[in-house]
Specification:
The chain is mostly beta strands. The chain is built from no helices and 11 strands. The strands form 2 sheets. Strands 2, 4, 5, 6, 9, 10 and 11 form a 7-stranded mixed β-sheet that branches. The chain is globular.
């Protein structure tokens, strides 16, 4: 079992930055791939970024490439999502998720999910 708690969301102006954190509790955290997803009102859930468990390979949705950076600190059981140059279309609830079944941006891969943190980009 793994429990995930997101933090760091909030209201930011366009062009601003936020750093989201996903803190995990449970055994064998370093064996899990971690991903960030987001869902805006009336839209489907979208995979934003993911990071593999040991080699820390990363992948990003085209919509966030060059603006978002995912990283993990296995000693702290935490994954971060640094979001720069934020746009109004980045407004969504952001969720982190974990899996040992591979890694990627497909939501169906992921077994454990956090409760989400709201990110609002608005002037």
């Amino acid at each position: 079992q793994l429990q995930l708690v997101e933090s760091g969301g909030g209201l930011v102006q366009p062009g601003g930055s936020l750093r989201l954190s996903c803190a995990a509790s449970g055994k064998y955290y370093s064996d899990y791939a971690i991903a960030w997803f987001r869902q805006a009102p009336g839209k489907e859930r979208e995979g934003v970024s993911c990071i593999s468990p040991r080699d820390h390979n990363t992948d990003y949705a085209d919509s966030v490439k060059g603006r978002f950076t995912i990283s993990r600190d296995n000693a702290k059981n935490t994954v971060y999502l640094q979001m720069n140059s934020l746009k109004p279309e980045d407004t969504a609830v952001y969720y982190c998720a974990a899996t040992v079944a591979g890694w990627g941006l497909a939501g169906e891969l992921y077994e454990y999910w956090g409760q989400g943190t709201q990110v609002t980009v608005s002037s």
